[in-house]
Amino acid sequence: MTTKDGQENEQAAGQAPPSKSGGAQQPSTRKRTKAAAKPVASGKARQRLGSKATAEKAGTARAPRRGKRAVEEAPQEAREAEPRTEARPLPRLLARFRQEISQELMKEFSYTTPMQVPRLSKIVLNIGLAEAMQNPKAIENATRDLSLISGQRPVVTRARRSIAGFKLREGMPIGLAVTLRGRRMYEFIDRMISSALPRIRDFRGLSREAFDGRGNYTLGLREQVIFPEIDYNSIDRIRGLQAVVVTTARTDREGLRLLELLGMPLVRPEADTRAA
C-alpha cells in the first residue's frame, strides 16, 4: 500500500498513479496534441530531401533555372556566339500564290475575305499493282520509285474483299498510295509542271474535263520515267501513276482558274483555238 505522502510525491514528479484496473494510464491530452501537430514527411518528400542534402554535401547541387529576365540580361556577345538555324525558304509556287495569285482570284471572283480564295489542300499519288500477285518484288520496286518521286514513303493498299474471278483474296497488296501536304505538295506540283509534263512525248496539254464537280482535278501519267528523279536504267518496268489534286474550290470553274494561274498546262478552249 502506498501512503498519502508517496502519492503526493508521485504527482509532484509528473507520474500518474496506476488505475484501479491495473493498466497504465494514457498520456495527457497536451502531449498528444503536440505529437499530432508535428508534420510527417511522405516517402517521396524524404527521398527528395535526402537527395538534395547528398548533392549539397558532394558539391553538385543543381543550378537554379534561368528565367526570361536572366536570358535578356545575358551579354550580347554570348548570344551572338550561339548557332542560329536558318529558316527554310518558302517554295516558289507557294510564295507566288500568296503574293500574286490570291489577289487576282479575289478580284476576279469578288471575294470579301482572303479565306474564300481557293487553294491547294493535298495531292494524292497512287499506283495500281495487279502484277503484285505474281511478282512479289513489284511492291518493293514501285515503293522505291514512288518514294523518289514524292519524297515521302508510300503506304501499301490492300484488297478489301476477295474476288474469285481475279484470284484475289482479302488483305493482298494491290497498290501504293502517298498523300502530300504543305511544302512537299507545292514542291511536287512545281516539279511536275516545270520538269515532268514537258518531257511527255507529243504532249499537247491536259484535259479540262477531268474535274469531279467540286473543284478537284485528276490526271493520269503513263510512265514514271518522265520525272527527272527516276533513272531509266534502274527500273524493272514502266509503270503509270495517278495524281489527284484536291483543292478548296467550291466549283469546277474556280478550281480550273486556280490551276491555270498556278501554271498547269491545260488544253486551250475551242473558241481560242478557232480564233488562232
Question: Characteristics of this structure?
Answer:
50s Ribosomal Protein L5, Chain: A, 5 strands, 276 residues, 10 helices, alpha+beta, 39% helix
Textual characterization of the structure:
- The chain is an alpha+beta fold.
- The chain has a domain at 92-266: 50s Ribosomal Protein L5, Chain: A, CATH 3.30.1440.10.
- Helices cover 39% and strands 12% of the residues.
- The chain has 10 helices and 5 strands.
- It has helices spanning 4-12, 29-37, 43-58, 68-72, 76-81, 92-109, 137-150, 182-196, 252-262, 270-275; strands at residues 120-128, 155-158, 173-180, 217-221, 241-247.
- A 5-stranded antiparallel beta sheet has the order 2-3-1-5-4.
- It starts with a helix and ends with a helix.
- Residues 18-24 have low confidence and may be disordered.
Counting DSSP E segments of at least 2 residues, the number of strands comes to 5
Q: Give me the secondary-structure category.
A: alpha+beta
What strand order characterises the main sheet? 2-3-1-5-4
Average pLDDT figure: 78
State the CATH superfamily name of one domain. Answer: Ribosomal protein L5
Query: Which architecture of one domain does the CATH hierarchy give at level 2?
Result: 2-Layer Sandwich
Q: Total helix count? A: 10
Portion in beta strands: 5-15%
Helix and strand string, N-terminal first?
Answer: HHHHHHEHEEHEEHH
What is the helical fraction, as a range of percent? 25-40%
Shape: globular
- List unreliable stretches of 5+ residues: 18-24
